[in-house]
Amino acid sequence: MNRILCLFVTLLTFQMAFAQTRIAVVSDIHVMGKGLVVNDGTAWQKALSSDRKMLDKSREIFDKLVSQFKTQRPDLLLVAGDLTKDGERLSHQYLKAGLDKLKASGVKVFVIPGNHDLGSTGARIYDGDHSELAETLDEAGFRTMYADYGYGKGMVADSTSLSYACEPVPGLTLIGIDSHSGWVSELTLDWVCRQAKEAVGKGNKVIAMMHHLLFPHFNGADLFINGATVNQYENVRNRLADAGIRVILTGHFHTSDIAKDWNADLSREIYDINTGSAISYPCDYRLLTLSQDKSELKVTTRHIDTLPGNTAFKKTAKDRLYMSMYNKAYQKLGARFSFNEDMQKQLADIAARTFIIHAEGNEGSQEHAEAVEQVRADIQRFGSGGNMLMEMAMKVLKPTLESVLTDTSNYGDPEREDCTDDLTLTIPMNP
Predict the structure, then answer these.
(1) Burial call 141-157: b when 16+ CB within 10 Å, e when fewer
(2) Overall pTM surpassing 0.90 (yes/no)
């Protein structure tokens, strides 16, 4: 009997070791806890109107994700930062309660902090016409809150940041890299690279997770969002790729875009799988499948299109993203160029429509052909009207817009230029 039991356990262990690993990835869910809006009023409405994030729907969207993942039962759920609106304790508590439900259903969850998770002046309690600062978490509080989700027993912790490493399933090492400040220090980078090399040395595949983009996914990304990438990204990219990391999961930019780059001498490639915000159009999350032999990682993309009782949810989300990017471009372009108001509005509209195409992914596909053609026609019209200021502005901005519209990273650099499928992709995990 003991021999039969040992054989059964051995076979079960073997099957588990070589089964496919299903991984759900979400980012920038920005959950806003109950009690942060005491009384709706001008203070809350003003904050909401200037934000592309649907913070007023964040709990509904998060609850739907929890319900879906309880049904889908992925092996792992990875949350790539910006868990909360602005690091409020109430928001962290609401989020953790949902993660606890997933843990109870058998899903292993791992989180890392984003730039909104350790408190900021945006962490406020809104009451009618007024607001006041809300209680937030510091790094120690974050470790305690998420002890079961990356910061507890069985993890290897970096002593200088909220980075960690673990082996959530046999043969796969997960490294959570703390970039919440926008930086990864040299000490932390050294630590991350040691963990990766040790994992590769024993035959494991490595997936890293970090909030900020590892490198720009199109030229001039700061036109839309300042500080899109981790600081000194070339150094971080080179060192991670050299250490054997082939895939990194990121967030922050609120678009689902996959880009490939290389280390300094172009001998090792690394994929940055950026996952969009679940509360910003098109409300994406990712489903990844690591093959039985861990030689391939298949990426698919899903969207939240509806909420209970809200059939107009998708249109509302898209309209809010357009207005947010329009206003952002209007302000930035106005500060950079001496446009009259009509010029400023025209170019802000072009920028906002371009970003919508980028957010939907696979910008160069047939699905976007008509929208891309229209944007290009408007770019041509704007830059060829005989106005020197408009021509100068378009000369500066066109490489960014073309980089987006062709879905091309490292646009103009023949050695690094690349166009990668953003929504469905199979990545070879072997070097």
Answers:
(1) bbbebbebbbbeeebeb
(2) yes
